[in-house]
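Feature request disguised as a bug report, sorry. It would help if multi-protein outputs had a clear separator. Right now it looks like this:
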Amino acid sequence: MTVRLERDETVALLTIDRPEAMNALDVETLSALRDRLLELREDGGMRAIVLTGAGDRAFAAGADIKYMSELDSDGARGWGGLGHNVAQLLETSPAPTVAAINGFALGGGCELALACDLRYASATAKLGQPEINLGIIPGWGGTQRLPRATSLGFAKELVLTGRLVDADEAERHGLVNAVYEPDELMDKVMGTARLIASKSPLALAAAKRALNHVLQGDHAENLEREAEEFGRLFDTSDAKEGLTAFVEKREPNFTGS
């Protein structure tokens, strides 16, 4: 199994498990990741998802270049489609997704991290989109999500030069939310995931839907969408519980209803 799924109460931990290959993404691994994400979407019991790589050297050191070297344009479109599918599942998952970047996150690995809602990096991590060095471009959303996470100028620099950045530079540009020492990373990330998982899953999903539209579409329509999401939540038991718990000065017990 190239992708491990572990459950910690309401937090799911997905681990890309090919440490001997720097957790590079081949067809089997990417398909397994897609299947696990679909399983979690159907499950509905997980309120946060953490994605990381096995070992301490790589989150995912890109896609399988040997496999890609044998593709024609039709094969490349299919391969790109699989990557886009996985990234979209991460981006649109009702449960917030958190990347624990424990080493190299290059090419497709960086793109999967970009599709997550939050990204935290080990101090030893390296990130980048070096596809230009191979005569190609990012194919799993990197040209679109990197500028949205950082800035257009920074994204163009990384994509056009292919250079890698260390964790501190990534944090300065907003590519990662925070940087931790390697032996602290997973504890910090799991702590954040558990904090997220303590919230109402209905509110989390609504917040994600609204936030995912912030850099696209019409501003006025996005504000209307937020207002609709806000209003709908008041018909839920979770909203009644959260508001009542605040008034009664106690911790809420959200049930997802």
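(second protein starts here, but nothing in the output says so)
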Amino acid sequence: MESKRIDKVLVVGAGLMGSGIAQVCAQAGLGVTVCDVSPAALERASKTIAWSAGKLVEKGTVKGPLEAIMARLSFAAELDGAAAGQADLCVEAVFEQRALKREVFAALDRLSAPGALIASNTSALSITELAAATSRPERVLGLHFFSPVPMMEAVEVVRGMATSDETFAAGAAFVEAIGKAPIKVQRDVPGFLINRINLPSNLEAMRLVEAGVGTVEDIDRGMRLATGRRMGPFETGDMVGLDVTHAALCALYEETRDARWYPPLILRRKVCAGQLGRKAGVGWYRYDKDGNRVGPT
């Protein structure tokens, strides 16, 4: 069966992930609407996309001009039929909170065209559970992008229990169409594939810092030099947001009741203290007003 063609995309959530998803879609020639209840978040997303896409155009890695990319983007402060009705694919990219995501899914189901696909960028929550908030679970899938979206090539395409073969194929084709590599997740398990492999090492890194065995800087340096990673676990954690990591781990723990996923005390305390990473000026490292790292916390 021929997979559904996707020309217009709605992204709900204008944060780091949502703006990145919108950017790569616009760069690939798709029409994109970004929706967020916060006008400030929409303004920030527009500026971030323009800056990031502009750098890629300058380097010649993305076909310009920048004006053409930005012209494919529109921004909406309200999720309504005008925003959702024309989309072939709706991508939810709000905070990793089950109730909030289910609320967004129910709204997308009500407002989008009957044939539209609905996807979640969740890193840990069940696609099957999110799909249950809609009347079209066969058209729901996971599209888990990695941060920073414009730079990371992999996207997990996740099949829920009710996801149809056509929807799964359309998700993989969409990922390829925007220049990414689809990583197919055939079963809806907590954490999918990459996080099930990656998060245990990140948790161990936090526990080693907590126990005083090593420093944040030495662990990051060692992981870069010994494993070939472009960024260490703490550098990555600050970019993603410690609150986002905490929420993902909590979701995994709630789903499995497996103690290995429970957030370490050092992470829980940092989140309580508002040390959420680069966006807060302090996380595992400290940052200046321009987001440049100035030293360890």
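Even a blank line would do. Unrelated, but nice: The chain has a mean pLDDT of 95.
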